[in-house]
Amino acid sequence: MNVFTIDNEVSIRLFFFLAVFACMAAWEVIAPRRILTSPKGIRWLNNIVISFINSALVRWLFPISAVGVALLSKERGWGAFNYAVMSSWWTGVIVIVALDLTIYIQHFLFHKVPFFWRLHRMHHTDLDIDVTTGARFHPIEIILSMGVKSSVVIILGAPAWSVLAFEVLLNATSMFNHSNVLTNRQLDRILRIFIVTPDMHRVHHSVIIKETDSNFGFNLPWWDRLFGTYRDQPASGHDRITIGLANFRERKWLTLPWMLAVPFSGRYR
What we know:
- The protein has about 270 residues and is mainly α.
- The model has no long low-confidence stretch (mean pLDDT about 95).
- The chain has 12 helices and no strands.
- It is globular and about 55 Å long.
- About 40% of the residues are buried.
- The chain has one domain.
- About 60% of the residues lie in helices and about 0% in strands.
- It is a multi-pass membrane protein.
């Protein structure tokens, strides 16, 4: 299992990334939820480029991935679950849920701590929300997130397969819940019991601050309900919701140089 994981991690992640991206992009064309307000070409180009920059930077700065950290932890006997008498399957499920909770807490803190918000707000300066927005994160935020995930993997002694499964799920659900896709409202009600849906997460990208500071979940929708950060619908409705931040309305913030400069802008919200 370990040999399979370490030898094929990149291929597995790339396959699922491309497959989910293609499905969501096609869905957006066939049944879009909203009419986009900004040129799609410039947004897609720069959002995809920043995604490749982030991937290359992480591979350059971190000698081993989070999956590699899990394999090393197993080899060295680090982490709680390496001392627990429990099946690998149940351990893996607990790890996936624990990592998802970690990402929820991280996301919440990146909104509440001013230094972290300066980094994270680049994600929110997109003037529309679609499948590419799910990859639009500042490189410094990605580096910090990788450090957080690796630390939790070591503390838990996470099985490598569960870390790989979580990474695949996180990428897939990020593209899914940022997508500009039309879903049946009744189906959405059912789906958001188990997963964060596009209509649920779109509220989080509202220009209204109380809506921006809600619905922090990426995979599982339970944390928002549990910790009181859940908001069912945007006040103005999905058709009239304004996406982005009030002080970053110029289209220059959609281009790569200005995206990278967002944390250093004197503007706040």
